[in-house]
Specification:
- The relative contact order is 0.05.
- This protein has 4 helices and 25 strands.
- 11% of the residues lie in helices and 26% in strands.
- By secondary structure, it is of the alpha/beta class.
- The strands form 5 sheets. It has a 9-stranded mixed beta sheet with strand order 1-2-4-6-8-10-12-14-16, with no helix packed on it.
- The chain folds into 2 domains: 25-307, Ribonuclease Inhibitor (Leucine-rich repeat, LRR (right-handed beta-alpha superhelix), Alpha-Beta Horseshoe); 313-394, Immunoglobulin-like.
- The chain has helices at 4-27, 32-44, 57-60, 318-321, and strands spanning 77-79, 85-89, 96-97, 111-113, 118-121, 135-137, 142-145, 159-161, 166-169, 183-185, 190-194, 207-209, 214-217, 231-233, 238-239, 254-256, 294-299, 305-309, 323-325, 332-336, 345-349, 355-360, 366-368, 375-382, 387-394.
- The radius of gyration is 34 Å and the shape is elongated.
- A hairpin with a 6-residue loop joins strand 19 and strand 20 (332-336).
């Protein structure tokens, strides 16, 4: 017959085992990697000042998960069927500081939405370890620096919002590794360099917005492969060359190439009605080559933008370059020899020494004097180094 003490020993042992099993079961609801990652996120982004931090004390005030830990209670956090964190959505929640490296332990994270906060610093290389991520939204923060190379490892990414930050550097040339990408918004940053031809390999891309950056070079011709494209927004950059003819074949809801000064007509594609009929009409259209010493900038046969070099008058006598006719004059005066000159200011004085007319020879080589009374006047031309005065007669 079993003694009472032995029965109690067996009962106590069984009870302890049940308690341990129950504790393990409860702790299974709160994965330690997820717990640590969320704790690091809270501490690195000034969690105490978040707008909504409901139930975040579950991770902020403890070093280890409590027996009743359930991360789904946390504001902005959702779990999948494996009780792993798959969504972190802290949109417009007054987060500040930098993203922690420990975020990489959210190994089943599908959606990370941190837009409209005050986050800063560089994106950690660890972001590329979130292999399940399909949506990354970091819009409207203060992130800076170049994009981490690891970003192109996010093979499941379909949504990438980087807009309105201070990112710089180039778009990774291996961006075509993100072959599931449908939305790419990177406008209002400081990106530079050429648009990578790899963009043309993102055949699922529907929305491409890269405006208000410092991109240069030509528009990649292989963007014609983007048959699903609905938006192409490249305005306010430094793009150059001719418009690629594939633009005529795309059916887009929104196309904007404006304020690219070295493109034909400064990128105003829609203003060139005949472009899709005869692309050669781009040759000779106005552009801005960015050189202050040239005039009459226009698209050249090789699709570059170039103008005629103005004469440097710093070491040339003004009176050897400019003459006035007719003189005497009745209704207007014209400046002979004013072509291809750097801008020269002029002032017209009456006999009392009063300025009755002023302007720029470069901007207006023909000037009306109909409003002046008849008499003798003196016109003065000058730049930073020289002055010359020529008398004229108004009849």
């Amino acid at each position: 017959m079993m003694t009472l003490s032995l029965k109690w020993y067996l009962f106590a042992g069984c009870l302890c085992w049940l308690c341990l099993a129950n504790t393990v079961k409860l702790n299974a609801q709160c994965h330690i990697d997820d717990f640590n990652a969320l704790k690091a996120l809270y501490e690195s982004t000034n969690g105490a000042n978040w707008t909504n931090r409901s139930f975040w004390d579950m991770v902020s005030e403890h070093e280890m998960p409590l027996p009743d830990c359930d991360l789904s209670f946390l504001h902005g956090v959702s779990l999948n069927t494996n009780n792993r964190v798959n969504i972190v959505d802290l949109f417009n929640n007054n987060l500040s500081g930098e993203l922690p490296v420990a975020i990489n332990t959210l190994s089943e994270l599908n959606t990370l939405s941190l837009n409209d906060n005050k986050l800063s610093g560089k994106l950690p290389q660890a972001i590329g370890e979130l292999s399940q991520l399909s949506s990354l939204s970091l819009s409207n923060n203060n992130f800076s620096g170049v994009l981490p190379e690891s970003l192109v490892k996010l093979k499941n990414l379909s949504i990438l919002f980087l807009d309105n930050n201070q990112f710089s550097g180039t778009i990774p040339t291996a961006i075509d590794s993100l072959d599931q990408l449908e939305w790419l918004f990177a406008e209002e940053n400081q990106f530079s360099g050429n648009l990578p031809a790899a963009l043309g390999n993102l055949t699922k891309l529907m929305y491409l917005s890269l405006y208000q950056n410092d991109f240069e070079g030509s528009i990649p011709a292989n963007l014609d492969s983007l048959k699903n494209l609905q938006w192409l927004l490249l305005h306010q950059n430094n793009l150059s060359g001719c418009f690629p003819t594939f633009l005529c074949n795309l059916t887009l809801d929104s196309l904007n190439l404006s304020q690219n000064m070295q493109l034909p007509n400064s990128g105003n594609f829609n203003a060139i009605d005949s472009l899709c009929i005869e692309p050669a009409v781009q040759i000779g259209l106005p552009c801005n080559d960015g050189d202050e010493d040239t005039i009459d900038d226009k698209i050249q046969p090789d699709c570059s933008c170039a103008g005629e070099l103005m004469i440097d008058i710093s070491d040339v006598k003004l009176n050897e370059l400019i003459s006035i006719y007719p003189n005497p004059a009745t209704s207007f005066i014209q400046f002979n020899g004013a072509q291809n000159l750097q801008p020269i200011t002029f002032r017209l004085y009456n006999q009392q020494g009063q300025v009755v007319l002023s302007g720029s020879v470069h901007s207006s080589s023909k000037t009306s004097i109909e409003h002046l009374v008849n008499g003798i006047y003196y016109i003065q031309f000058f730049n930073t180094k020289q002055k010359v005065i020529i008398p004229i007669v108004k009849e």
